[in-house]
Write a structure and sequence with these properties.
Chains A, B: GO terms for molecular function: outward rectifier potassium channel activity; potassium ion leak channel activity. The structure is a homodimer. Chain A is mainly alpha-helical. The first copy, chain A, is built from 10 helices and no strands. Chain A has 2 domains: about 45 residues; about 180 residues, Helix Hairpins. The C terminus of chain A is likely disordered.
């Protein structure tokens, strides 16, 4: 890989990325194609049966029109089922959860703005709020990442590990801790509390929230006809989970990205300009520098940057 | 602000963030509450009318059951309307778009896995693919950000601007270029091509995609009964847009985060440990260091880090 010119390396990386996308797509196609077709067939059969049994009394298109309205309404989070005992759509807890899903870029989509004003406000709010959130996380990072590196320093001295190994061990421990506390534990709680979802679905939901993918196909408490107070408690719990869990996730990602091993790997693929103290310092902060004394990567040949 | 202890500053920042969340929620509640209630009322009225007119022939609950099935199917992207001429759900272009929405964390949610195997695969795929994507972006950043800083260096010499001003001008110009090319231009194209959406909705969609919020309430071409070939072209266009647009967005965010002005602001709120060359280098890369010679921020008093 070191012998290839930089543009060839990037090209290879990009192609590998696209191949990975394709591979994932093919696997999902194989896993999901049949269930989706079955669901579609069931739905069509139900529609056909319905039409056959009751079509005589229904004018042509009346049922489709009704279905269409109900589906459009659901796309914006308005439920057509239930007797209204569920909390209203844009009450404060739901709206808070929605704005949090905007600013964390999770974007569940179980609720979405209907009005032009609402859409315009969402764009403006996110355009201002996202940079502010990033700045907040950067500020918190300055404070928390050095705190997190202290256990590593202690372990390094106690067990006499080399600084890079101590950093790796610490990052892995932090990663496991965050996964345990912010994915597995909440998934177990959710699985226990919410009767109709499996442990896998609970883990799937927690992971999809914390990675900010936020598919939104499963939302705890949503549509389950809970008492409004309980439902609001669920929403506030989810809100807190989203904010704290994402902070934890971001700190973990930061910790991993500052590992000398990861830096070396990125450098290996990356620009091969002269490596010097400022470049090394480009990711390592003050405390991490104390931990990791690995010399500038020997893997990156000294060429002028030519991309 | 400088007189406050670090923990008080962070507390203030966190409170400000929560207040901003609350403010957004209140505004959206005011904007969206009434339209959602109206939609719900319309839907209930339609249901009631339907029941009144045809309820005699329908057994109790038959309609609700049918609606329930249709809504659940839609939540997973299976459409109950249309005569099947629309491309099948998990065909390759749709699956590609789905995996791209996973790896970019956009997560539209217009399609979602039904089977347990599919959900487990999504978790594993994203857990491996997201770090790989981040590493790819880090590698590309090494190459592209220095390239992007060259115009700034040229402008600095030609117009004899101070390096921080040249960096700011360059960042703003890059931001405007990216917004123009990746938000406004695609929105105009989408508005022109897709008959049933306004320019605001097109901008809203482009912004929601590039910010990775991905609410998924509007998806170009989806459900519009296009010819399958055209629909696939739409999907590939969206795929390319997502990947390139996000890369452009990330590079812009990176460029802004490396501005001395932004660094100073984050430092002002952030940890007030001793500032030195490694810390300065923590964000400035090699080429940016040449552009911005601002001394370590005087705003951060020299205290031992105490959070």
């Amino acid at each position: 890989m070191g012998a290839l010119r930089p543009w060839a390396r990037y090209g290879l990386l990009a192609v590998a990325h696209l191949l990975a996308l394709g591979l994932g797509a093919t696997v999902l196609q194989a896993l999901e194609g049949p269930p989706a077709l079955r669901l579609q067939a069931n739905l069509r059969a139900e529609l056909a049966t319905f039409q056959a049994e009751f079509g005589a009394c229904l004018p042509a298109g009346a049922l489709e029109e009704l279905l269409g309205t109900a589906l459009v309404a659901q796309a914006h989070g308005v439920s057509s089922l239930g007797n209204g005992s569920e909390a209203r759509n844009w009450d404060l807890p739901s709206a808070l959860l929605f704005t949090a899903s905007l600013l964390t870029t999770t974007g569940y989509g179980h609720m979405a703005p209907l009005s032009a004003g609402g859409k315009a406000f969402c764009v403006a709010y996110a355009a201002l709020g996202l940079p502010a959130s990033l700045a907040l996380v950067a500020a918190l990072r300055h404070c928390l990442v050095p705190l997190l590196s202290r256990p590593g320093a202690w372990v390094a001295t106690c067990w006499q590990l080399t600084p890079p190994r101590a950093a790796l061990l610490q990052a892995v421990a932090l990663g496991l801790l965050v996964v345990g506390v912010f994915v597995l534990l909440p998934a177990l709680v959710l699985w226990d509390v919410q009767g109709n979802c499996s442990l896998l679905e609970a883990i799937y939901f927690c992971f999809s929230s914390l990675s900010t993918i936020g598919l939104g196909d499963l939302l705890p408490g949503h549509g389950s006809g809970l008492h409004p107070v309980l439902y609001h408690l669920c929403q506030f719990a989810l809100l807190g989970y989203l904010l704290l869990g994402l902070l934890a996730m971001l700190l973990t990602v930061e910790t991993f990205s500052e590992l000398p091993q990861v830096r070396a790997m990125v450098k290996f693929f990356g620009s091969s300009g002269p490596v010097n103290a400022e470049d090394e310092g480009a990711i390592l902060g003050q405390d991490e520098l104390a931990l990791s004394n690995m010399p500038p990567s020997a893997a990156a040949p000294a060429q002028a940057p030519a991309c």
